[in-house]
Amino acid sequence: MARRALKIFSLAAATSGVYLYGNKHVDPNDFGIIRVGRAIATTAVITYDYLTSLRGVPHGSEEYDYVKSQVHLRSAERLRDLCCANRGTFIKVGQHLGALDYLLPEEYTHTLKVLHSQAPQSSMQEIKQVIQEDLGKEIKELFVNFEDAPLGAASLAQVHKAVLQDGRTVAVKVQHPKVQAQSSKDILLMEVLLLIVKQIFPDFEFMWLVEEAKKNLPLELDFLNEGRNAEQVAHMLKHFDFLKVPRIFWELSTRRVLFMEFMEGGQVNDRAYMERNGIDVNELSRNLGKLYSEMIFVNGFVHCDPHPGNVLVKKCPVTGKAHIILLDHGLYQVLTEKFRLDYCRLWQSLIKADMKQVQKYSRRLGAGDLYPLFACMLTARSWASVSRGIDRSPVTANEDVEIRTNAAAYLPQITQLLNNVPRQMLLLLKTNDLLRGIESALHTRASASSFLNMSRCCIRAISRYQRSRTDSLYRKAQISFTEALSLWQINLYELYLRLKGSQLGNWVITLLSWMHHSLY
């Protein structure tokens, strides 16, 4: 039945294509029947593949695991091709899935990751049209120079470098012209298809993906909202001198065109760039961890799209320190106070390996009896590592393979969890995985310093909350003293780790050891 449906849709697409592709001014993707037909056909083929390929294969056998892996891979490739063909919202959702390392089968995440670098570009004619419609002026009236080749293209927009008439160099983000009109229809189509698939596979729980797209896409399509987010995070984290956020030029910006200060640098996961420019990857990783710990635990206002194209690094010629340039501020998650404090306490429990508290706060965050799986999803560590303490040992290659294998084995339970946890958690899980991907590329993953930074922010956040809940000056002073003592202990432990890892520290430890043996 699925193959017959595919033939029908292919015939319809081919017949329409004779005219559409012959007309240079008509894009077949503008026609709903082709986009819908392509999506239905792809869904039908993927469903048929899962239904028939695993039939008769003994469940739990090596053959079953191999066949399932091949079906995952074929399905991921079909899904990738659908996203590239339908563009816009489809690419955005595909990118979200591709960012869920350690949560989805590797065949899907690895295949869909390419969507970050393979987003389609709008033509210069389309870019000129959007600028003319929104600003009422031709490109030559606004700019001394406007580069035709975009600096980067994403699912919803692309960015061009330009020079204004007054000589300022700017980055101009221009929305793809058809995204606004197509997005709501695309989301409805996805919702219908996911509901149909769920009827066939009851364990298939991906409605959370559509719900997130419904909520976030309108915000991401409003570039004025993106500009406000950029200014808010720049003000919120102004005490970090290594953070740079492009300034917004409000007098020229609209909902579909955003004018920003032009900034450039290497992508944060480009280790070769770091080596060429003498940038300390350990310090860079620590600073990135500080930024996100502050956003998540202290402020509850989180940039949720830190893929490498949105996080650039540049060495300051004056100070010699590396600046982190944070781009693309369309997607933020605002955390409620209750959620943020429960999340703080959960991470404190994970770092301390306090399993009773891990269970308590995982349940409060919607994990229920699946709290061990939830802890593994959050940390991307095995349950054995979580139980011992995630700061006690680095991630080994074997453990990494185990986690990725379990993502496929426990997919029904993972999707159930994703459906049950608060919606705020979904973007945090995606953000966690993107940050882990950066750390893996820099070879700095799961360093002790990252957990120390998280601990500091958790202590500060909880102490601030406790002070706000009491009117007693004595109690406020007591809380502040306990906070200062805890932070001092962390600083002392960090100093010990740095000494231990340095040549001077090794000499001191060797000397103390020699003195100890000499005395006894």
UniProtKB/TrEMBL annotation:
Keyword terms of this UniProt record: Signal
One Pfam family named in its UniProt record: ABC1
SMART domains, per the entry: S_TKc
A GO term from the CC aspect: mitochondrial inner membrane
Alphabetical list of InterPro entries matching this protein: ABC1_dom (IPR004147), ADCK1_dom (IPR045307), Kinase-like_dom_sf (IPR011009), Mito_struct-func_regulator (IPR051130), Prot_kinase_dom (IPR000719)
Single GO term (MF): ATP binding
UniProt entry tagged with the keyword tRNA processing: no
Keyword Signal: yes
Protein name in the entry: AarF domain-containing protein kinase 1
GO BP field: lipid homeostasis; mitochondrion organization
Signal peptide: 1-17
Family, as annotated: Belongs to the protein kinase superfamily. ADCK protein kinase family.
Name of the gene encoding the protein in the UniProt record: ADCK1
Protein's job: Appears to be essential for maintaining mitochondrial cristae formation and mitochondrial function by acting via YME1L1 in a kinase-independent manner to regulate essential mitochondrial structural proteins OPA1 and IMMT. The action of this enzyme is not yet clear. It is not known if it has protein kinase activity and what type of substrate it would phosphorylate (Ser, Thr or Tyr).
Residue ranges annotated for the Protein kinase domain, each copy included: 145-457
